[in-house]
């Protein structure tokens, strides 16, 4: 045995002992320190022109990537400082308030296809801090007679907090356009179509909505925070439906193939809903059916309700879920 080995072990042990002793509270009973006034002034100045960014899907948006990608998207590379926070958000420090206004005016932004929430640092104590995305939403298929500000505002208010109503009248070369600018809650699902009753006793309007700047979202539940493979609703899909969604989001197939896959998926979901509605109706009819039985040894007929048997779940809900191919993630946005 090397005689020096024990000495080295003793030295390593001593280091650990004294490292642990630094956890003592020496100095805590003495006068407290105060930060220099100049440091406070610089801190306050920095945070007057500070934006905080948060990726809505942390599984695909890491803070380090946000730190690099967003200044590129803003065309402010080299003109903005940044710092990653413990909660996964990123602070961006701008040279002027003008740059902040310019950035906010062009929102929303995405990183790797998923949306990024932005807010001013001074709003951090507000309940809606980093909770909204500014969207311009086009409202399609609204009948001509209902293109009025209050009607449009009422429809838009179902999507989020309405900041502005925009109605562009038709011309010879351009169709009419109706849209709203809203603050959309990041935890609410994206709504793409909806039947809207404008007046009672009149047929509802079948409206569609298109969100400017929206890219990736869950195509099962509409969430902005996860892809469809991670959705709880995916457990109710068949293998075929999962394959169709896989094809419908695959960048390596043609647009026609993607469109066909999505149409087939929607048709399969509609068929499933029809089957479930039919099964529910049959169950209700069976429960309401009255059967006649003859008690043994008598000639008297008596009536009693037949027992209903629970119907098995539709086959398209009980198949095992398939595993989706993971496509290559997009490069950092410029």
Automatic annotation (TrEMBL):
Residues 186-232 form the Zinc knuckle CX2CX4HX4C domain. InterPro entries: At4g02000-like, DUF4283, Zn_knuckle_CX2CX4HX4C. Residues 295-334 are annotated as: Disordered. Residues 321-334 have a biased composition (Basic and acidic residues). Residues 47-127 form the DUF4283 domain. This is Uncharacterized protein. Coiled coil: none annotated. Residues 302-315 have a biased composition (Low complexity). It comes from the Eukaryota.
């Amino acid at each position: 045995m090397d005689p020096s080995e024990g000495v080295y072990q003793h030295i390593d042990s001593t280091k650990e002992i004294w490292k642990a002793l630094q956890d003592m509270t020496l100095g805590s009973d003495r006068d407290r320190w105060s930060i220099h006034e100049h440091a406070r002034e610089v801190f306050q100045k920095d945070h007057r022109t500070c934006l905080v960014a948060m990726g809505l899907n942390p599984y695909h948006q890491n803070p380090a990537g946000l730190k690099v990608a967003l200044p590129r998207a803003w065309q402010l590379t080299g003109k903005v400082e940044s710092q990653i926070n413990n909660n996964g958000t990123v602070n961006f420090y701008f040279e002027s308030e003008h740059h902040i206004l310019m950035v906010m005016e062009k929102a929303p932004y995405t990183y790797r296809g998923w949306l990024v929430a932005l807010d001013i640092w001074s709003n951090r104590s507000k309940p809606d801090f980093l909770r909204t995305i500014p969207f311009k939403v086009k409202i399609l298929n609204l009948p001509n007679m209902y293109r009025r500000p209050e009607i449009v505002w009422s429809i838009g208010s179902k999507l989020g907090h309405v900041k502005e109503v925009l109605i562009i009248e038709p011309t010879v070369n351009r169709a009419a356009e109706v849209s709203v600018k809203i603050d959309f809650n990041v935890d609410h699902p994206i709504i793409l179509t909806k039947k809207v009753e404008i007046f009672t006793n009149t047929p509802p309007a079948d409206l569609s909505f298109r969100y400017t700047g929206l890219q990736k979202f869950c195509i099962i539940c509409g969430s902005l925070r996860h892809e469809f493979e991670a959705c709880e609703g995916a457990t109710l899909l068949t293998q075929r439906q999962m394959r169709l969604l896989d094809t419908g989001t695959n960048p390596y197939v043609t647009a026609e193939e993607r469109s066909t896959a999505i149409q087939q998926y929607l048709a399969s979901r509609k068929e499933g809903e029809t089957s479930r509605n039919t099964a529910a109706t049959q169950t209700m009819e069976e429960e309401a059916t009255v059967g006649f039985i003859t008690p043994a040894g008598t000639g008297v007929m008596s009536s009693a309700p037949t027992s209903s048997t629970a119907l098995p779940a539709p086959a398209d809900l009980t198949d095992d879920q398939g595993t989706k191919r993971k496509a290559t993630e997009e490069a950092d946005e410029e």
